[in-house]
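Retro notes, item 3 of 5
We never archived the inputs for the zinc ion complex last cycle. Fixing that now. Sequence and ligand:
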Amino acid sequence: MLCEVCGRSVKGRPFSVKIEGAVMRVCERCARYGEETKPVASMPKPVVHVNRNRGSMEPKPQSMGFSRKPRPPSIEELEVIENFAEVMRDQRRKYGMTQDEFGKFLFERSSLINKIETGSRVPPFNTVRKFEKKLGIKLLTRREKFDGLTTAPSTNESIRLGDVVRIRKK
Ligand SMILES: [Zn+2]
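Structure as it came back at the time:
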């Protein structure tokens, strides 16, 4: 056979050595350029070590998954509960208050309470949140779908609705 390094025919037994990570069958003279693979543990070559671990330097594929956290519901994904007007009226009756008293209790004008109970106005979410805390009940719910047909799509929208109602009453 021929030496894989110098190309000369190998006389006697060929040496199996590792040269820069690749195992080659070489002649006795070229054997000293590499590291013998078979015999007892010699010093491990740092070159081989680096080659084997190169893959770990690259970004791990599963690291992408960690950035996908469940988002907290944004204001756009919330809407007031379906029977908001009804629930607000029931709450007021539970407290045995007039609309005026209930308004003062919630730090809102009684006219807003009236509009809420008649269903002509849905207050902004931050106002509804205030009611939730004050009354200890849930008035906002997660929107099922985004078809734009649900009530009070945004805070601005509900203010505009209220303004329209106010203008019409003049
Ligand atoms: Zn050789």
